[in-house]
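Today's session is about reading a structure prediction critically. Students often jump straight to the picture, but the first step is always the sequence itself: look for stretches that repeat, for charged clusters, for runs of hydrophobic residues. Only then move on to the predicted structure, which in these notes is written as discrete structure tokens rather than atom positions. Here is the chain we will use throughout the hour.
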Amino acid sequence: MIEIAKLKARNQNKSNIDFQVGDSCNLDLKNSGFDTVIASNVLHLFFKPEKALEEMKRVLKDNGQIIIPTYCHGENTKTILISRLMGLVGFRARNRWSIRSFKEFVEKSGFKIEDSEVFKDKIPLIYIRAGKV
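Below is the predicted structure for this chain, in token form.
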């Protein structure tokens, strides 16, 4: 994906972008250096999502924001069952939040939810934009 992103940047004559691969729970980045951090569709896969949010908060400027669309594998009995079946074929959600419990998790991690929208599907996805508290 990094190579695809680099190609797109070159094709659009964008040269002020630095693409990196790293550990989201131990970012090799300075404190308070970013306006926005995006973690798209990954938090449900992490062993320690609270550590990832802690790192996002650390690297954000005081008025920074996170954008964290996340699948809610624990929304109801049906989504839990689908999620467990997916696990049998190799796709393991390590966190099965409901929409409500994910919002609570984000807020307890030191963020204020500014926007949220739920996209209904077999497993719903919640889009959250939150500011650093």
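Discussion point for the tutorial: The mean pLDDT is 96.
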